[in-house]
Specification:
Length: 465
């Protein structure tokens, strides 16, 4: 049984190239497009079972009598397990079959959503005690367990995608393809917010977990048929050879003749790489602002500006939708203007993010229509650094052989920031009000600017040396 389980997820063996040039071109053309859109759709759908809680928070908190601190703790369980899981699953994904690894994770995430909401149906807060504890406490623990388990399976989504993009697309096109794919983050948040807002309005907050779960299960089954592992497992040559261009990295660990172990490559390119460490630390603060706004903006608009849940959800959706253009813009500018140097555009975007956040907070209620614009700007200027710092920059600063692991490593730090954002924002709001939350997010962005500035100086000095 264990042997069958391992074989199901194990990366297929590399096959010798037996196709002629015409067959190679035809097969690559077909599967590169197929891998791209399948990975894109997969990650959009992953968000349906992750960001749905952001829209459900106001109604769920009122129905289950949960404070902002308790809601923050509940939300942070996903980020803790996601961060740990992204690192571990990043290492596993480098040696796993993308075709089975990713769809299985999506289906299991959906099951966790069903268990999460079903537990709130079975156990209702009141004066009933279980083992000497009130039912409300037991319910919070059970929901935290399933939401944390959801975070683990959610963390299995990005690493295999990073592996696919690294192996199916060459260096000269990867920046553009990566930035286009990264819009799946924002479109996924947009779709999740819209679907959750509609079903909550019609059927109550529990539907925001049931409906996305069904969509995720159907999509997971479809992905089993669509996805494939890296080209070499299909008898295709390396993508750089196919496109007749140099390999993405000239380091010896990307050469076919390198006989070093995976751990040696991992150690040299990640654990002992100062650039990766600076990117990882900066990623903490990127995620504090990213998830602070994504998870708490609806509740902020309802409580501070008196918006209805529908209007607040639509404002959050503008943050997500326009954020997609920010990711593309950051990728294109860093390619065309800064010639592949990603750090300057990160600094510019982060400074603009601070101005957008302060403008959003200062906007009076009577000019609520401007909230859509400021929220969109927050999304745009967050998505650029989010895509670059922990994604493309991490891959380009390491080796293709540890692409998933490098993403997982920065992801651990990112989701430390996400956990700090979720739990920290809840505590700050309960103690200092919503102005405290705005200050928390702004200071985090300023710290990220400082780290990126240090990284820019380091990279400049290294190039001179």
């Amino acid at each position: 049984m264990l042997d069958k389980f391992i074989r199901f997820f194990k990366e297929p063996e590399v096959k010798p190239v037996t196709m002629n040039d015409e067959e190679v071109k035809k097969t690559y053309s077909k599967f590169r497009w197929r891998i791209f859109y399948s990975s894109f759709i997969a990650y959009v759908v992953f968000h349906l079972c992750r960001k749905n809680i952001a829209v459900a928070l106001p109604a769920m908190g009122a129905d289950l009598h949960l404070s902002n601190t308790e809601l923050g703790i509940l939300g942070s369980t996903l980020y803790v397990t996601y961060g740990i899981g992204k690192f571990i699953n990043g290492i596993l994904a480098d040696k796993a079959n993308v075709r089975t690894f990713l769809p299985t994770a999506l289906i299991l995430s959906a099951i966790c959503n069903l268990c999460f909401v079903f537990s709130a149906t079975v156990i209702t807060p009141g004066h009933v005690s279980f083992f000497g504890l009130p039912s409300a406490t037991i319910l919070l623990w059970i929901m935290a367990f399933f939401w944390g388990a959801n975070g683990w399976f959610q963390s299995c989504g990005f690493p295999p995608v990073a592996k696919s993009l690294s192996y199916w697309f060459s260096n000269s096109e990867r920046g553009t393809k990566w930035s286009l794919w990264s819009t799946s983050h924002q479109i996924g948040v947009f779709a999740s917010v819209m679907i959750s807002g509609i079903v909550i309005d019609k059927f109550g907050w529990r539907a925001a977990f049931y409906v996305p779960a069904v969509i995720c299960i159907i999509t997971g089954i479809w992905l089993f048929e669509r996805l494939r592992d890296k080209p070499q497992t299909m008898g295709l040559p390396d993508v750089e050879k196919y496109r007749e261009e140099p390999a993405a990295c000239t380091k010896s660990d990307d050469n076919d003749g390198d006989n070093r172990s995976y751990f040696q490559i991992f150690k040299e390119n990640i654990l002992c790489n100062p650039v990766i460490w600076m990117l990882a630390i900066a990623y903490i603060f990127v995620y504090i602002i990213r998830f602070g706004t994504e998870d708490w903006l609806v509740k902020y608009l309802v409580e501070v500006k008196g918006n209805t849940l529908t209007i607040a959800s639509s404002k959050l959706s503008s943050l997500a939708l326009v954020g997609a253009f920010g990711a593309i813009l950051a990728g294109v500018i860093s390619d065309k203007i800064y010639k592949g140097n990603r750090t300057p555009i990160n600094i510019v975007f982060l400074i603009c993010l601070i101005m957008s956040l302060l403008a959003f907070a200062a906007n009076p209620v009577e000019r609520g229509y401007l909230d859509y614009i400021y929220a969109a700007m927050i999304g745009m200027f967050t998505s650029g650094p989010q895509m670059l710092i922990g994604g493309l920059c991490a891959v380009e600063s390491s080796s293709k052989k540890v692409a998933s692991a490098s993403i997982g490593f920065t992801g651990v730090f990112g989701y430390i920031g996400a956990a700090l954002s979720s739990g920290g924002t809840g505590v700050v709001v309960d103690k200092f009000g919503w102005n405290g939350a705005i200050g928390f997010w702004t200071i985090s962005t300023l710290i990220c600017v400082a780290i990126c500035t240090i990284l820019l100086i380091y990279q400049k000095n290294k190039r001179k040396a």
